Here is the input.
Amino acid sequence: MRTPVVVIHPCTLFHDGLRQTLKKSRFRPVHIATTPSKELETYLRSLKSCIWLIGVERCVSATNDLVQRVVTTNPGVRPIILAAYQVADDILAALKAGACGFLCQNIPGEQLIKSLELIALGETVVHPRCSWEQTAIEHIQASREVEEDNRKSNANGGSYLIGHSNSRSSSPLMDFAMEPLSESQAGDSVPSLSRREMLILRMLMEGASNKVIALKLVITESTVKVHMKAILRKLRLQNRTQAAIWARNHVKEELSNAPTLASPAH
Here is the structure.
């Protein structure tokens, strides 16, 4: 399925190059402009979902305000900053405003497409990825997942143990049945867990290390640690052992679709 891409960039030569770069990808430019406008904001709000590339010399507060306005009214828009200069404070400010990516303008075409694919799947991408922003990005992304879980839980009128295979991973993963919490669990106020947290718990039951979990889910070890902290906090547990025990008692496996955890490739 083709993914629509909306582009703002002051250079028309960039427009032509981007069209050629995306020609053989799943991404389809549907609107290209040189400057932001009210008409463009209205158009972005009308789309069900899209990738939004924003080309700037440097990401300033006006850009962040625009991003925040659009994503607040349409969460299906995934903004990506294409900046000539990468400054630590600029990157974090853009991500907090709602940007899903912060890329340098001289990024190679192949790497741009790979970044777009990850962002379309819900990941946050910064290029080049530096150690100084790693933890901040993971916490921002984890916070977004928690907020999304809370919205879904409220919409469903209660808490659920959610379990479908994670589409962000390139390797086969375990599936779970979606099961409402039992009366006793509801009485204990067990919060809802995200699909990724349920997958991590499933692998934790099998004795997987953070490194193995990261390889299976195609994420970093630091991301696994962030999710583990969230799991322990939600379940009011102290350590991984308690989490594994809780999982054995509460995780409902779909046996027909639950292959055993394979050893990671070396």
User: Anything to note?
Assistant: Residues 140-257 form a domain with the Arc Repressor Mutant, subunit A fold (CATH 1.10.10.10). The mean pLDDT is 76. The chain has two domains: 3-129, 140-257.
